[in-house]
Predict the structure.
Amino acid sequence: MAKVVYEKTRGLTENPLSYCPGCTHGIIHKLIGEVLVELNVLERTIAIAPVGCSVLAYNYFNCDGVQAGHGRAPAVATGIKRTNPDKIVFTYQGDGDLAAIGTAEIVHAAHRGENITVFFVNNAIYGMTGGQMAPTTLIDMKTSTSPAGRQLDGAGMPILVSEMLSQIPSVTYIERVATHDIANLDKTKRAIRKALQNQMDGKGFSMVEILGTCPIGWAKTPADAMDFVKEKMIPYYPLGVYADKGAR
Amino acid sequence: MSVSTYTAKHRLVFADNLCKGCDLCAVACPKDIIKMDKTRVNEKGYNPAMCFDMDACIACGICAKICPDSVIKVERDI
């Protein structure tokens, strides 16, 4: 007699993922899919895919999905949620999408306290377009457009999105989590569940910032990229709950 | 699909053609019994993951949880 300890969640489709080897997008997709199944909302969920590596996310989540213009996922989510309040609407955005071109959309969606859930994957680089410097690239981190490393003089400091949005009075829940080891995967899954539960309870705007990796863009092996998250990213992007206000 | 072995207590089922050989499962495995099989190449052109000592497996599921491509199914003997 055998008991299944772990198998692929039905929250994801059978399509093979288009991500590079060792990319944490796959892990985060799995966690979101698992939570959607556990909350029993898969059939009434609408995913908003961004522009970037995860542009095809709607092919992988086993729910309805649309793809928004670059950075505009919170605006599209706002429209869908307001016209279909019984649906569960989440956006899945990278740092190039949410923290660069889509800064206005996310800030205003948070100020409006829209009852949506945002999953923000921060891997500190523009992965899809070839590893260019992003607003979230760490100081001294080498990318194809900062070959000497990002410098404070000229490029400024990396944007701390969770800290910034947590200052907004109308947000409900902001947490930053990571995916570099099993313990943190469990914490990430709990944060994802809470963010979606908040929406089901009508509590308002929830965002989970998930520190991920880009082994190809960072020119590291997947295992070394996980170590980089632990040793370099977490000191600048501290994990933790930044806002948790319960009901609006 | 490759099944590690039927004689051991627990079972790991690898969906070989989904594997991208990223090594995350091998690094995460607390028993160090997973490696990329350099003798085989899958449809995508990667060396797929395999377990070389199934008897040592404790069916903890860590390899499957960390796998970005949902390659591994873990079955525990009860």
Notes: The two ends of chain B are 23 Å apart (CA to CA).
